Amino acid sequence: MESAVARGLCTDEEAAAHGMSGAAVAGDVSAPDMALSAAKDALRGHDPGDIGLLLYTDIWHQGPDGWYPQYYLQHYLLGGDALALEIRQGCNGIFYGMELAAGYLRGFPERGDALLVAADNFGTPMIDRWRSAPFLFGDAASALVLSTRSGFAQVLAMATASVPELEQEHRAGEPLYPPGATTGAFLDLRARERRFNEQVTEDSTLRKAWLVSHMRMLQMVNRLMAEAGIGYEDIDRAIFTNLAPKSIEHRWMDVLRLPMEKSTWEYGRTIGHTGASDPVLSLHHLLSTGRLGPGDHVVMGSVGSGGSISCAIVRILAVPQHC
User: Fold this and answer.
1) In the chain, what are the domain boundaries?
2) Distance between CA 31 and CA 207 in Å, rounded?
3) Which of 43, 121, 124, 139 is most buried, most CB within 10 Å of its CB?
4) For the whole model, what pTM was predicted?
5) With contact defined as beta carbons under 8 Å apart, do 114 and 146 qualify?
6) CATH node for 157-316
7) What are 221-230's pLDDT values in tens digits?
């Protein structure tokens, strides 16, 4: 952040508002190329021919209009036999992908494993990683393989819920037509947030929707922990979207009854909010730095545009050798 402030990319006040110390910057490396690299890393020890499902999730533009990035990975990595889909579910994309993949793996076990990839490069026109949002946008890609056979971790329970009344937050004051991306409109999430907050009064429907959102997150966590057969005292680490610390503490850590020290905020604040990659990168960080071991439980969560809430409970079985 000191470098960004010195270069005039943001002010000291803007830097202090979200508490982040920096953002990952990929330069001119495209998101699909980052995704390809992440996918190759995730597939170490796997035969690409064993992948029956490829889910590619992103939140920002990936390449030429009318072109789909999942086929780029098929072309250079998997071949054409896998079912390949792009998911645009915002910051919750990986969790949506996990739920879709779970159904696919159970329904078609003979078709192979699932590869989930997330990638975004925000260093483009029409967005300012330093000023467009109440956090920093970081460039990153991540990938993981889901299988019913074996792995270094086991997904014990997962779920997603929506509070659709909150979809207004990310479109406040913006027309639906023509879409901003087709007119060259600049993305300013801060301005949308200000306009949205002006509509939230103490007794408004939107205020009640925020309370419902928090209640559903609490209900979801309790239900999933019951399904996983664990209690709050069994949670070793908690992963959440890389947002400002107050958001992480109030939206997530308070729900889990855990101190911030159990979160991955200290890591997340160094790379920024990387779209759908946040939870996977944070899990990799915990494993690679020795903060997780066999038998540990991790609760992973995320909030997404449109009022969506996701959560997954994972048990670590082993630490991958290439972490």
Assistant:
1) 2-150, 157-316
2) 36
3) 121
4) 0.94
5) yes
6) 3.40.47.10
7) 999 999 999 9
